[in-house]
Amino acid sequence: ALGGVSNAWLNDGDYFEAAKNGFLTGFVSGAITGGIGGGISAVRDGRNFWHGGKIVEHYEMELPTYLQEPGTIDCRYKVFQSFDEHYNESCSDFTYIKQKYPEVPGSESQLARMYSSRNMALSKIDKMNASSVAECLKNDMGVSIEMKISDEMGRTVGHAVAVKSISIYDNGRMQMTLMNPDRYGITKMNKINPNKIINMFKIQKFKP
Dihedrals φ, ψ of 106, to 5°? Predict the structure, then answer.
C-alpha cells in the first residue's frame, strides 16, 4: 500500500486519493509493514525499494542549479545557464542574455542561436524515451525536456528542465533527476509521458 502511494505521487498521480485508498487502508490491513519489509529486502539485494528493479544503466552530468524568480518564465534561460557553466566553465550573465535574446521563451530559433553563441549546438530529439536520454548523457550530450505543467492559476504552461542523471532498471523502469529552475531546483521523474512532453532537446559542445 505504501508503494502505491509513493508511485502515484512520483508518477503525477493524485497523491491525496492514493493516500486515502492505499496509505490509510494499509494501516488497517497491516500492508504497510509487509511493504516496508519487502522494500528493505530489495535494498539489501541492491534493488529499488519501491519496485524491486536493479539498475543496469546509469549516466549523469554535473549541472549546477539555476532558479528563476517566482512568477517569471525564465526557465529556458536558466537551463541554458546550467549547460553553459557545465561546458564552458563559466556562465553568461543573465541580464545580458535576456536582453540580447528576448524572444527565447517563445522562439526555438532564437533559443538555438543563444546556445550557438556559447559554442553549443541545440537540436531536437525525435524519439522521446529513456533510451534516447541515456544515449545522450553517455556521450556527454545534455538533454533539456520541455513539458506541460499547471501554474498557480491552474493554467497549462510550458516549463523547461535539464537532465542531471538517468537510471534504467532491469524491469523496464527508469528514474531521472532533473535540474528544475522552479521550486527547489531538483525534481525526480520516473516516467516520460508523451502527452505531457512538448520538446526534448540535446545539447552538444562544439569547437569554435
Answer: -125, 10
pTM over 0.70: yes
State the cell numbers at 108: 526555438
**Residue written as cell 569554435?**
208
Q: Cα Rg for the chain, rounded, in angstroms? A: 19
How far from chain centre, in Å, is Cα 157? Answer: 16
User: Do residues 202 and 123 make contact, with C-beta atoms less than 8 angstroms apart?
Assistant: yes
Collect all residues with Cβ–Cβ distance below 8 Å to 121 and sequence separation of at least 6: 115, 203, 204, 205, 206
User: Which CA distances in Å does 80 have to 48, 92, 97, 107?
Assistant: 32, 9, 10, 14
**Which cell numbers hold the place of 192?**
516520460
- DSSP H helices, the chain, are 2-10, 15-18, 24-29, 31-44, 75-88, 94-100, 108-116, 130-138
Contact assessment for residue 119 and residue 88, using Cβ atoms and an 8 Å cutoff = yes
Dump pLDDT digits (tens) for 58-107.
999 999 999 998 878 899 999 999 999 999 999 999 999 999 999 999 99
Query: What torsion do the CA atoms of 86, 193, 77, 99 make, to the nearest 10 degrees?
Result: 150
Phi, psi of 159 (to 5 degrees): -145, 135
